[in-house]
Amino acid sequence: MANEFEIELADDIEVKEPSKYKVFLLNDDYSTMDFVIEVLVKVFRKSTDEAAKIMLNIHNNGRELCGVYSHEIASTKVSQVKTMARTKGYPLKAVMEEE
Fold it and tell me: How far apart are CA 96 and CA 43, in angstroms?
């Protein structure tokens, strides 16, 4: 007699990695270079040297990748940038794009 509670499991269950999101900082004409470096150090945990290089790329190219994260973490980082910028009176923006 077969167990009436037996469950047949599929052998080919596909496990999908969660999507990753790129977070970019966008250039503006008002946020100071020092403030952008501060954001990169505090929010994105970059060294001062790495933050300075990223800041120059933002200034020269209009935007630069700051990191790749899960949706929740990327969203939090975008929010942290917005909060820091508004607190200091700067229009600095971060955006996230699916990888």
Answer: 14
- Residues 44 and 66: beta-carbon distance below 8 Å: yes
What pTM value is reported for the model? 0.83
Q: What is the pLDDT of residues 33-90, one digit of tens each?
A: 999 999 999 999 999 999 999 999 999 999 999 999 999 999 999 999 999 999 999 9
57 burial via Cβ count (<10 Å: 0-12, 13-18, 19+): middle
CA count, 13 A, side-chain hemisphere, 95: 10
Domains in the chain: boundaries = 20-98
Asked if 53 and 41 count as a contact pair (C-beta separation under 8 A), the reply is no
Alpha helices in the chain (DSSP H): 33-42, 48-61, 71-88
CATH code, 20-98: 3.30.1390.10
